[in-house]
Amino acid sequence: MADKLHKTKGIVLRSVKYGETSLIVSIYTEVFGLQSYLINGVRATGRKNTGRAMFFQPAAILDLVVYYNEFKQLNRINEYKWARLNENIFTDVVKNGVALFMVELLSKCIKQPETNSDLYHFFEDAFFHLNYCNDKVLANYPIFFAAHLSSFFGLNPQNKNNRILESENLLFDMQEGFFTEVLPNHGYYLEKNFATVLAQILLVRQPDELEEIQSNAVARYKILEGLENYYMLHIQDFTKLKTLPVLREILR
Q: At what angle do helices 117-132 and 135-149 cross, to 10 degrees?
């Protein structure tokens, strides 16, 4: 039986060269979740192929017509075009660095090709806001994304008492996943200055509100390191993020 064609949107996570002219591309799709596709000839030279590989750079959002067979590890793409071209993400060095961090973080969290349209739409919307945000929003954006992404994997940090967020002794216990005033008996926690900023960012619902969050580059990186540890504690086989040291250099 021939594989059926389906329409779906997809966000490119990773591209690997295959042979002399082809690519194997990992795409998070709206309809099928995480999928891998073999794309023949996309790197071939010639007028017809000029620029085709650019569609498959990480963070590209595409309208796709794909073949789907649940028993195949590699499917094929019949048609592709831009669904939305977020130009600033590809031309601005800092925004591109943040986008690659977002892609890597999601890639490390997804283990199975399960459909999750809510996660897909969150991911797509996050790139839309990243593309247009100003520098003040951009500085806090990686924390905003990492903190809110956690809820899709059952890891959203818990606040058992709203009063605690106003405490001068606020801590975030990464092992237990909640804010507390009690010093944990282990080393996996964010100290008060960093925990307060994280708590404030978790209350943000629209990215533009990030402009009001007061922090500095040292605090933001410390929080991102904490969130990296948080994911490592709770997501099986989650390893250190290669893009995190890059953010330290480009985000001020």
A: 170
- Per-residue model confidence (pLDDT) at position 245: 96
Beta bridge partners of 65: 7, 79
Q: 31-64: buried (b, 16+ CB within 10 Å) or exposed (e) per residue?
A: bbbbbbbbbeebbeeeeeeeeebebbbbbbbbeb
Structural domains of the chain ordered from first start:
4-85 (2.40.50.140), 88-250 (1.20.1440.120)
Q: Is 25 helix (H, G, I), strand (E, B) or coil?
A: strand
Q: Which residues contact 32 (CB under 8 A, 6 or more apart)?
A: 6, 8, 66, 68, 113, 115
16 DSSP β-pair partners: 24
Structure tokens at 154: 């059952």
Both structure tokens of 190: 């964010």
Q: Tens of pLDDT along 174-231?
A: 999 999 989 999 999 999 889 999 999 999 989 999 999 999 999 999 999 999 999 9
pLDDT, position 81 = 95
| 115: number of Cβ within 10 Å | 13
Local structure of 251: helix, strand or coil: coil
Per-residue pLDDT tens digits for 85-111:
999 999 999 999 999 999 999 999 998
Amino acid at 86: N
Nearest to 40 by CA among 56, 62, 60, 27: 56
